[in-house]
Specification:
Length: 282
Amino acid sequence: MPVSRLLPTGILVAILLGCGGATTPATAPSPAPPTPAAPVAAPATPAPAQGTASARPLYYETVLTPADLDGRTLRELSLMRNTIFARAGNPFVKPWLDQYFRAQPWYVPAAKIDTSKLTAADRQNVTLISDRENGLSRDHLLAMRDTAAASGDTVELSLLSEALGEWVGAASVPMADRNPLEDPSVLDQQLVLAQLDEMSRRDLRLLRNTIYARHGRPFKSAVLQLYFADKAWYAERADYSDAALNDIDKRNIAMVQSIEDRLGGPLTEWDHEREEGWFAGA
């Protein structure tokens, strides 16, 4: 869940505006504040992604309106949010995002994002897009699943699976090829390293706690509370004990922790809140 669902909008914007350095607008301001969101002229605007529901722009210089997000697939929303970061050189772990942006002539990946390149409008738009992605109801997501299944959009089905916390992709996909955040039943078996290769520290924290959540563990973390509250399979237990964990659970937790340590250690609650608002799904 993004930080935008944990904090009032005013506080959130203040936090986001404080995360980077001074920003410089891409173009000089017009004499009067623009009301509609204006798309950036080529070549800055990315080409429409294969499998998206429309060819509407993915990047806007000015603050988005709800109409700019209406009818977008999860793939489109993710590309809109991540285009903002890609323009600042952000590298991507997930292959579909990395492949998409490397195909854009304007994209120059760096070792890490240069947040000074993000404008005030960029920062507000990240929050608006993240709110829309994570504010969709279960019924809405299931309707989107039906559309994605009919079109065979595997990326969209993957994103929908993670949002729902249950597998909605093709039944023919082997369990070993499923992301355990998309299909928590994968955790009934011993994980292999290849299943964690594309996970960020944010993903790993969610995965580690998914193992506990499947046994009903309550969470003090506001981020985790909101994340698991949306999952149909989660039922908090007042009598929860780690004694409920079986040997496979313990080995999987140890494996996840080893990868977290390799990447710099588990995220703190504050870092997780910040990443949910800025990089969720990246």
